[in-house]
Amino acid sequence: MSCSSTQVGIIGAGPAGLVLSHLLHLEGIDSVILESRTRAEVESTVRAGVLEHGTVELLKAIGAGDRMQREGAEHRGVYFRFGGETHRIDFGEHTGRSIMLYAQHEVIKDLIALRLATGGTIHFGAKASTFAGLDTAKPSIRFTASGDENELTCDYVVGCDGYHGVVRPAFPRERKEFAHTFPFGWLGILVEAPPSSDELIYAHHDRGFALVSTRSPTVQRMYLQCDPHDDLAQWSDDRIWAELHTRLETKDGWKPKTGRLLQKSIVAMRSFVTEPMQHGRLFLAGDAAHIVPPTGAKGLNLAVADVQVLARGLAEFYRSGRTDPLAGYSATALRRVWQAQHFSCWMTSMFHRVPDADPFQQRLQLAQLGHVCSSPAATRALAECYVGLFGP
């Protein structure tokens, strides 16, 4: 067995693990990332990317924002569509801030390149299996790479390996898990077409929710609410376009731009939070600790917020020996997590058609949307949450 050591062992080369590793590097703290997938698999896993103002500023500050600034699309607002009419939420007017559309896998490519260029250690194809000594000063991680058994000894272990990862099950049974499964899913398509809109469109319709997003000048992303158990084979291209036209068209004749479908998939929607996010020398960050419905566009941003808090605590420990910032990591991170859960679930409930909802409930949705779009106070509150002004 090959043995090695580092200060912080990180499981997972997603946004949380990569940002944490680089933040620690900037503080002179050594880390090693263990990632079960190959680099090609990590960099090709396509996921949407709506980046909050704070996430954009962090990526720029740590040296990972050059390509994002060249290729990403800055949006200073978002469109809400209901009753065949469109209403714009102006982020700039209400917050002075904006968001950036830049796909998550592109963020990951930039972060991997940055870590490797600055001497970071990332072991791809390294599958962590067991953990030992999590309540001691020197926990260890057993992992397999290229068929060989290895052991990594470190001061701290951080699980950034997602909801289905191996780290969260290593927590004691006393942890609490809060979960909710929504009775609908999203059918997502990637389409070869020019942009249908200069900003995202969130559409409420009697037949269900629809979302228009941009990916590039030639490739766009769109979503339809559907049954999460639908057979994708039943969703022909013609059926998809018919639903998008029905749910998105407006009284003034606006229609989405059509094109060749490059990809389509159905995903379920759920919320999940585990408490606490730490145990002994083991910490969780990102999707390993919490999942939010995508309506609020908070997943990647929460991951980055988690590791900012954690990196500050680790830096203080190595600088002064103080452990109280680390001891407060979970409580600090969870305040933002639950705020993001509330916002994401609120957005979800406002736009989606709930199965078996009666006409009274449907009217309440429209009343809520009308209030958000007509009340300056309500508009500002939504804009603040969307661009990421809620704490810590």
Q: What attributes characterize this protein structure?
A:
8-stranded mixed sheet, FAD/NAD(P)-binding domain, 6-stranded mixed sheet, 2 domains, alpha/beta, about 400 residues, D-Amino Acid Oxidase, Chain A, domain 2
Rg from alpha-carbon coordinates: 22 Å
Mean pLDDT: 94
Beta-strand percent range: 25-35%
Regions with pLDDT < 50 over 5+ consecutive residues? none
CATH-derived topology of the largest domain:
FAD/NAD(P)-binding domain
What is the multimeric organization of the chains shown?
single chain
Tally of helical segments = 12
What's the CATH superfamily of the largest domain, by name? FAD/NAD(P)-binding domain
- Helical fraction equals 25-40%
Secondary-structure class:
alpha/beta
At CATH level 2, the architecture of the largest domain is 3-Layer(bba) Sandwich
- Main β-sheet, spatial strand arrangement: 7-6-15-16-17-14-18-21
Name the CATH class of the largest domain.
Answer: Alpha Beta
**Count of distinct structural domains:** 2
**N-to-C CA distance:** 43 Å
The major pleated sheet works out as: 8 strands, mixed
Number of strands: 21
Query: Could you say which overall geometry the principal axes of the C-alpha atoms support?
Result: globular
